[in-house]
Design a protein that fits this description.
Radius of gyration: 20 Å
Order of helices and strands: EHHHHHHHHHHHHHHE
Number of domains: 1
Largest sheet: 2 strands, antiparallel
Mean pLDDT: 77
Structural class: mainly alpha
Length: 333
């Protein structure tokens, strides 16, 4: 791996597998877990359009700075189109949709829908990355999604009736899952922080226009706390958090690493209780433990077929893409 690269694709270098992908993913999840409560804080004084677009503009400035200072090569060919997909999902779709939704729903309620993100990301990883998790993985992922949604519903008031805010949050989940899956694949070619930086660059013209429009319509005037929350969303949620998250997805397998997100709603509701004084009781504590248990079992589910069967399959299909039975992780120097 070069000093300026975090890419993990090569045809010539092989290292032993590790749990590095899970740990990198967990770091990203912890960073993202503050996104919902801090968005709820920021929309108290700033417009949702300004929050969703302005944070991307600030992150894009940071992205341009690091790309320039490290002299990164330009993406090539279809990588630009794939970066546009990433940008549409995690730079435009998720921030804007969640910002509008959280103008009128509690942060804990937002975690109800966002709790579905691990399962949806796993599906996208299978569809886009051609990973083939065993049935036991899907069983534990489904169980984790059910337990997480049940837990968050008890804390956030549940789905008494479907509202337009819920629909926005559902859209945010789908957008993020698509952006995560495509970004995880691109991170294997471009590097983790390079991928999010280029995605921010691709989306910057649109986000600059939206930021100007929002500032003209409603001049951004907020308290120090609201601006601090906005700063976190721009620097960490929109930029630094993806360094770790895309690194974890790139190491993969993506479907497995995505299940680390099961602990995100637990953390989000905990931060909402501490920062926003939303209710936190014993049911939340017990539910949180159940969610963490499901996450632990999901990521530890055996992901390989018997070694002999795997070797025979690889021998019969040389050059075939890396699958869940592989005992190797490839990394570029």
């Amino acid at each position: 791996m070069t000093i300026h690269s975090s890419a993990t694709v090569s045809k010539n270098h092989v290292i032993s597998p590790s749990r590095a992908g899970l740990w990198w993913g967990l770091v990203g999840v912890v960073a993202f877990s503050f996104t919902v409560p801090f968005t709820r804080v920021a929309v108290g004084g700033l417009s949702p359009l300004f929050i969703g677009s302005g944070r991307a503009v600030i992150a894009a400035v940071l992205g341009v700075a690091v790309l320039t200072l490290t002299r990164q090569r330009l993406p090539r060919g279809t990588q630009w189109a794939r970066l546009a997909v990433v940008a549409a999902g995690v730079v435009v779709g998720f921030p804007l949709l969640t910002s509008f939704a959280l103008t009128s729903v509690p942060a804990s309620h937002g975690a109800v829908v966002i709790a579905l993100l691990p399962a949806v990301t796993a599906v996208m990883a299978v569809l886009r990355g051609k990973e083939r998790p065993p049935r036991s993985f899907w069983a534990m992922a489904a169980a984790g999604a059910v337990v997480t949604v049940a837990f968050a519903s008890l804390q956030g008031g549940g789905f008494a009736q479907l509202t337009w805010q819920d629909l926005l949050l559902f859209g945010a989940v789908i957008a993020a899952a698509v952006g995560y899956a495509e970004g995880g694949l691109l991170a294997r070619e471009l590097g983790s922080w390079q991928t999010v930086s280029w995605a921010l660059v691709v989306s910057s013209p649109l986000m600059i226009v939206l930021t100007i429009v929002s500032a003209v319509q409603q001049p951004p005037v907020g308290s120090l706390t609201e601006w601090a929350a906005f700063a976190y969303l721009a620097v960490v949620s929109m930029f630094l958090g993806f360094f770790a998250w895309y690194r974890g997805l790139a190491i993969g397998p993506m479907a497995r690493v995505s299940q680390v997100q099961l602990v995100q709603p637990v953390l989000s509701i905990l931060w909402a209780a501490l920062l926003l004084r939303e209710e936190l009781g014993w049911a939340t504590v017990l539910g949180g433990l159940a969610v963490v248990l499901c996450a632990g079992v999901a990521v530890r589910t055996r992901l390989s077929r018997p070694a002999r069967a795997m070797d025979q399959s690889e021998a019969a299909s040389p050059g075939r893409g890396r699958n869940w039975g592989s005992r190797r992780t490839i990394i570029r120097e």
